[in-house]
Amino acid sequence: MTVIALLLFALVASAVAHDAVHPKDLQVEHRSIEGRITNGYEATEGKVPYIVGISFNSNGRWWWCGGSIISNTWVLTAAHCTSDADEASLYYGATNYEQAAFRHTVSSAAFIRYPEYRGLDHDISLIRTPHVDFYNLVDKVELPSLDERYNSFDSYLALASGWGAIYDGSNVVEDLRCVDVEVIPLSQCQAYYGTETASENTICVDTPDGKSTCQGDSGGPLVTHDGGKLIGVTSFVSIYGCQSGAPAGFTRVTKYLEWIKEETGVFY
After folding, report:
1. Cβ-based neighbour number of residue 27 at 10 Å
2. Can you list the alpha helix ranges (DSSP code H) found in 72-147?
3. Does residue 3 belong to any structural domain of this protein?
4. What are the residues facing 74 on neighbouring strands?
5. CA dihedral in degrees (132, 178, 81, 184; nearest 10)?
6. Which pLDDT belongs to residue 19?
7. Which of 56, 89, 202, 256 has minimal CB crowding within 10 Å?
8. Residue 234 class from Cβ within 10 Å (0-12 exposed, 13-18 middle, 19+ buried)?
9. How confident is the model at residue 165 (pLDDT cuts 50, 70, 90)?
């Protein structure tokens, strides 16, 4: 493609920003559990020991998200998952969500939502949990160090994971799934969604062949292959669906390292 054609594409893309939506809010026929990794693969036992499945409840209405264990007593997830919830049940050490190693239930008093959260921006929350001992099926994931706060992670290969259905509109499945993705420059994501949706607090990945996060993966981890660092929290996808080929958006964890340190004492 010529330089002129690339510039024209960028101008058109920036002039017409596409809509995004939180994965858990996409409308699908089956909503008993809203989870999926599209076109991924099943996780083997112990491959993703830092993930938890989270069932949120509010007056009999419930929704499913993911989260990441960052210490013995803290889980990191998305703010739109904790928003309006009365309680959360966390499932640890599971590949099949119905066969978790153990479960803890906490009230909304355990939620700490980032104070500036609004819509798609600053989409990050902490959950204080009972103490959890680590072993091969349940373990923490490291955060980037404070020295890495300005690392864009462009072109890094990363692993996203979550539970559920395997393509748009399909029935849900029970097994944890993974997908390997590549981090793209923020400018490329902004060319599609605009700067209001894809702000500097966002990290985006490419979704070739419909390999993406989707319903119920909200709040789940994006972890680098190199070094195993938690760099993203699943936040949004295109309103046209998870298999549309549009970038998938995550909350950029490095933007919140000081906040996480202040609230939890966890830092590197």
Report:
1. 9
2. 79-82
3. no
4. 71, 128
5. 120
6. 76
7. 89
8. buried
9. low
Enter the tokens of residue 262. 């202040």
Q: Do residues 49 and 59 lie in contact, with contact meaning Cβ atoms separated by under 8 Å?
A: no
Q: What is the CATH number of the domain that holds 61?
A: 2.40.10.10
Query: Looking at the structure, do residues 94 and 183 belong to the same domain, yes or no?
Result: no
Give yes or no: residues 105 and 182 share one domain.
no
Q: Catalytic residues, which ones?
A: 80, 123, 218
- Domain carrying residue 231: 141-254
Interatomic CA distance for residues 228 and 205, integer angstroms: 16
C-alpha to C-alpha distance for 55 and 43, rounded to whole angstroms = 20
Report the alpha-carbon distance of residue 258 to residue 147 in Å, rounded: 11
**Are 143 and 253 in contact, with CB atoms under 8 Å apart?**
yes
SS3 of residue 218 by DSSP: coil
Residues 151 and 134 reside in one and the same domain: no
Q: Read off the tokens for 166.
A: 């395997």
